[in-house]
Fold each of these.
Amino acid sequence: MSTQRNPIDQALDIFVFAPLGATIEFWEKMPELAQLGRDRLGAQAPAARMIGEFAVKTGRKKVEEGIDSFANTGRKFAGAPVDPDETAEPDKTTEQDPASPTPPPDDSDLAIDDYDGLPAVQIIPALANISAAERDLIRAHETAGRGRRTILGKLDQLDARDQT
């Protein structure tokens, strides 16, 4: 003997009683499910964090490279020199006596704090906010030190702007 239920009872089972039963069962078993998740994924959390930190560092480096590239494009249009690799060592065509090395210039009297500790991408925007005399000190310091063409090019651009 087969008993067939009416459509209203079937609809109540599907849309009311089954979801309520599943919700009640879920709340009763939630501590067990949470522990199961901790057990399976807890050991992977340090690896996930390390991968995330690597991704952020790599992304930041790419963004800084993009900013430098964008800045170099602007210099091309302005007629200023462009440095494709701001971290490259300056051209050392003259030989220095290894017995008398020159000490690096001191950056304490420059208008930009911690100048030698900053990358060019952070120095270039600050150059527009200092006087021409302060820029001359930075030009002398940069020429005697690292000789970064990106910074020297920006100084040339600002000097040309001031002369017009």
Note: The helical segments are 7-41, 45-78, 120-127, 132-144, 149-163.
Amino acid sequence: MFNWTASADSSIDSYYLYINRVSQSGGTTRVYGKTISADETNVISSSLYTGENYIAYLIAQKGYNSSEPIEISFLVPKKPNKPDILSIVDSPNETQVNIVTWTANCDYETNYYLHRKIEGVDTDYQEIAVLDAGTTSYRDSVEQGILYRYMLKSSNGVILSNEDYSNTFLTPMIIEDKFSWKPFIKPLGVDRI
């Protein structure tokens, strides 16, 4: 998506945006061109490929006159791979803590977005943490006796990993033992107690 600030000149009729892909040899090929109404200040282009260099030009048009183009060079970053959640375990030394672990599948992520929902209660996931690249686990405080489902997405700072999140992972249900059951042993030779 390209955004710009509208011109203060109210007599502007339209804008023209064109985008050239830059080859490794330095040559350019036009991949996008569109006339945009003067009241629009953004456009989305699906004709750009990740990992490619581009130059965008924006021109204000008034009648038959055009402004000098504003030129912006940019790289469309590669889309990071989605991470795989490996496990969710209870912390052995603490109650009410799940430890979520995953594998980083990409060299160019900058962040992970961890989401959680209560199984059977929540319909939507809630973001619970934004974590730095290189992180492979998260300690989550939870309530005992509740099933939680987690999912994870990676980002390169501009683009999120593929349309899908990671695999989802359901926690095991931990139920706190609130009773200490002790068997009652009836002494020999006693019929009633």
Note: The domain at 84-170 is CATH 2.60.40.10 (Immunoglobulin-like).
Amino acid sequence: MDTLGERLRLARSAKGISQLAVARALDTSRTVVSKWENNEQEPRLQTLQRLAALYGVRLEDLVTSEANPSPVPHSDGLVAAEGPTERLMRLAEDLSTALKMREENERLRIEQVEAPRAEAEKIAREAERASREADRAAREGEKIAQENLRMLMMQLMGTPRDSGQPGGGEPVDVGDDTGEEPGSVDAARG
């Protein structure tokens, strides 16, 4: 056993788990695990560390050409012969570790992918709102400019602003205090 792929395959087989189970624990594909074991692709150091933890071996055993991967010693420093109960307990512990790694991967994915995406969407909504406000302000400015132009034109033409009189604002004779209509016969006599 002199290749990394062979050591990975041996450690996985000794653990009694499938390539698919490894792929799921590491959030990758079975094809990638197969490529590692067939020396077609090498896992990164972080992945090797996770594989060592999953297989219950030391990282050094995976990356060096020793004859057999060493089992990880118990917390008391002893390596005991493994019976069915111990194997079951170890497998449960390994499953728990794999689930924690999966949760950590999901947390990192959310942190590195979802959070920036949400922030980008928020910025896009704010930009859209600012654009609508700028459009509204531009329309208001245009109305004000048109009103100012109309008033200027009226001043240049000599028309009072609020005359509202027919004939372009020419003065209309409203008569005198006699109560007679302007232009009436009695008013003409007087």
Note: The first helix runs from residue 4 to 15.
Amino acid sequence: MTSITRIITLLLLCPLMVAGIGHAQEISAGATAQTLRGELFSLDDKVQSLQKSAADINRDLTILEEEAQFPEKSRISAFLGMDHLPRFDLHSVDLKLDGKTVSAHAYTPEEKSALRRGGMHRIHIGKLSTGEHRLVAAFTGKTPTDPQYSNTVSFNFRKEQKPKAIVLNISDLLQDDMPEITAREIR
């Protein structure tokens, strides 16, 4: 979360938290347990509502931040997916655009599990000028026969004045415990 996002979130939440504290102090000492319970549930509902509002604001700010940093007509995104490969353990993926490393990611057990269940990882978002470009994606992992297995794909594409999205997928179509990585454009 950027410092601007934190500041805006705090500015929005502080008056609401102070109002909640003031309301809690208004409860008289002679309030019944039932009334107190009702007030606590009401306060809990308000806190949950504030948390949801803060999450929504954070999501909106993140979207605005991405749009400001990566204008739509120059945006490039790369996503990684992986087939269910129970005998393959993914370690990392490196991504280069026009010879420059733009992403290097080592996968946690949770991320690997999500990929195996059909999840997609946005491995890169950035700006790219129009014209011809080359993407090179390489992954490393462990197979039953090779503890240092790796594979690479090179993908040439043309960037135009609109967003470009590329999907990388790790699969073992031949079922020979030698997964391959493929690349394709999303149209």
Note: The mean pLDDT is 82.
